[in-house]
Each structure stands twice: as structure tokens, then as C-alpha cells.
Amino acid sequence: MAPPRKAPAWSWIFPFAGLALFGLISAFGLRMELDGSWLSIVLDASVALVLIGAVFAAVYHSEAIAHFTGEPYGTLILTAAVTVIELALIVSVMLTGESSPSLARDTVYSVVMIVCNGLVGVCILRGGLRFREQSFEVTSVNIYLAVLIVMATITLILPNYAVASPGPVYSDSQLVFISGATVALYGVFLYTQTVRHTAYFVPESDAANGLPDAPHWRRVILLNGTLLVVALIAVVLLAKKFATVVDQGISTAGAPQAAVGVIIAFLILLPESMSALQAARRDELQKSLNLALGSSLATIGLTVPAVAAVNIVLQEKLVLGLEPKEIALLVMTFAASMLTLGTGRTNILFGFVHLVIFATFLFLTLVP
User: CA-CA distance, 86 to 83, in Å (whole number)?
Assistant: First the structure.
């Protein structure tokens, strides 16, 4: 479905409101604290609301641009915007409060579990309830899973067995190599998706309809591109303020530190998830899988190297290796994905299987 020709008011109000709110906080030296005062409650709620609104605005404008570029470039634009948001939130939380060397690992792991189980499960279940069965291009899913399995293994599992540095961490030289390997693998994937084998990733509806007829598409792209940049700047600026609230909230609630990664993952995936669900409802499961699995690849292929670079520069410890419990859930996720997505057709049982794994992941995160 094409986006409206006139952008909704919230899509430009929230980005500029984010800039204004950051300026207000900075000008008056306001501090983000959970002290129970009315000013603290209003300020914290405002930052959270405006940040979420700016995230949705960024995704909306990236989708508006994607409407005129077509698939698979549209999905790549959306993925790039989400990656910027994710990186801003992770780095902000890492540099806020107590040192959190495992935050990047927890966030990346949470994104993979939420996408491959929660989002994929809901899309398959929703589509199955509405259409009984849905089909997609098996080759594209095999490409996604092959790259994702390799990336997840070398970034989240292999650090447990490296001996150059004590603990589940890589040495600086190992981080540089692994970062280069993931970026190179992601680059080849992008070449495969956008140049070499584009047909594997393009939904039949998009292939049949082609690009939309828009006489003023350059003006529309320029406008939405400008608002997208403003929205991303607002997200980056408010991320550190939001990070303080999250850090204090987790400490006050006594929740496990891994819950921070889950919160960040949910926040950055929420708008993209809604787009994926809408596509599944329109019987466009291929587009849903592009959005879902593509975000997982971007998270590992782009976010991990960026976070590694920040940690090398700041000489901070970066814990990447997962605990045995998380490794078991990750391996089960990949095994289930190969079976449920290996036939090119889905039904409600496949979706429910993924949702059971997702529920197990959430429960064991809160009750380790």
C-alpha cells in the first residue's frame, strides 16, 4: 500500500519536538532522575514519548522513500535507518551509569530472538489464520539463514572459546578481524540482494506492479529524506537521556541487566515489526521476512563492528560470548527456522512453534 501523499502531522512534529526537547533539557541543565517528583515524571515521560515518536517518524519517512525506490532497496533504506537508531541507543546506554560490557551482546541476541521467533512467529500465525497457508521464495530465506547463522556463531558463540583474552571476549586484533569478516559478509549479501539475485527477494506484487508512477517523486524523496535525517538526529540526541531513565529503572525494579538489551531491541524493532505484520496481513509474507530477517543481519553485520570500534577506541571491555542457556536457545531457533521456513509454505503450527521459543526466551530473561 502506498504511503499518503501528504505526510501525517506526527511524522514531522516528533522529530522537531525531539530537537526542541533536547535543547530545553540542555539549556536548563535538567537531569534525568527517577526521584518521584512531578518534574521528573513529566520529563522522563516526555523523553520516552518523543523518542518513540521520533523512531516511528524515522521509519515512516524511510518507508515513504522506499515506496519510490521499490524492493529490495526500500527494505535496505528502512534497515539502515533502524541500524542507526540501534547503534545510538546501545552506545548511549554503554556510556551511561555503570559499565555494561555485555550490553551489545544482550541487544544483538535479543534482536535475533525477537525477530526470528517473535516477529516471524506472529507474522506466520497471523497470515495462517487469515489465509491458511502462505508462500515465499525459499532461496531468499536460505540466504538469510546461512548468513545469519555464520554471523551469530562468530560473534556470539566463538568468543567463549577464544583464548587470546580471558573470558568470553575477543582481543583487539580478533575484534578487528571478526568485524571485518562480518562487514564483508554483509556486503556480499547486499550485493546478492540488490544486484546479483534481486528476484529472490522481490515480492510478486512488487515485481508485477513495478515502481509507482509519481511525477514529483524527486521532491517527495527530498522532503522525506530531510525529515528522516532530522528524526535520526533527534533519536541520537535523546538516546543518552533515555538511556539514563532505562538504567535507573532497571536498577530500581531489580530486573536482570539483560533486560536492558530486550528493551532496546523492542524499541528499535517496534515500527519495523508493524510494517512486517501489515505485509503478512496483505498476504505478502516475502516482504515480512525481508523486513524481519534483514534487520537481524544488519544488527550483527553493522552494529557489532561499530560497537567493537567504539570499545577499541575507549579501551573498554566488550563481552560477546553468550551463556550456555542462551546458546541453547539460539541453536534451537536456527534449527526450528530451517525446518519451518525450509518448504516455502507456512501454516499456523509453524508460527506457534516460534512463539513458544520466543515466550521461553522472555521468561528466562526475566527469571534466569
Answer: 5
CA-to-CA distance for 87 and 307, rounded, in angstroms? 7
Task: CATH number of the domain at 28, please.
Answer: 1.20.1420.30
Long-range contacts of the stretch 273-276 (C-beta < 8 A, 24+)? 273/119, 273/122, 275/59, 275/63, 275/78, 276/119, 276/123
Length of the chain (residues): 368
Query: 299: helix, coil or strand?
Result: helix
Contact call for residues 302 and 147 (beta carbons, < 8 A): no
CA dist., res. 230 & res. 228, Å (int):
5
3 lies in some domain: no
The torsion of the CA quartet 233, 235, 240, 241, rounded to 10 degrees, works out to: 110
**Contact, 7 vs 59, CB < 8 A?**
no
pLDDT of residue 260: 86
Domain that holds residue 146: 10-366
Return the pLDDT at 197.
86
pLDDT at 200: 85
Strand partners, 290: none
Residue numbers in the chain where pLDDT is lower than 50: 1-4, 208, 210-213
Beta bridge pairs of residue 346: 134
Q: Is residue 167 part of a domain?
A: yes
Q: pTM of the entire structure? A: 0.85
What's the CA gap between 106 and 111, in Å, rounded?
9
The secondary structure element, H or E, covering residue 134 is: strand 134-135
Give the pLDDT score at 217.
66
Q: In this structure, what are the phi and psi dihedrals at residue 135, rounded to the nearest 5 degrees?
A: -120, 160
CA-CA distances (angstroms) from residue 183 to 121, 178, 222, 299? 28, 9, 29, 11
pLDDT of 75: 62
Instruction: Look at residues 142, 160, 99 and name the one whose alpha carbon lies nearest to residue 289.
Output: 142
**Alpha carbons 257 and 279: distance in angstroms, whole number:** 34
Residue type, 41: I
Q: Residue 208 has what pLDDT?
A: 47
Contact partners, residue 264, CB within 8 Å, separation at least 6? 86, 89, 90, 93, 107, 110, 246
Is 311 contained in some domain?
Answer: yes
How far apart are the C-alpha atoms of 161 and 232, rounded to whole Å? 37
What's the number of domains the chain is made of? 1
Whether residue 141 is contained in a domain is answered as yes
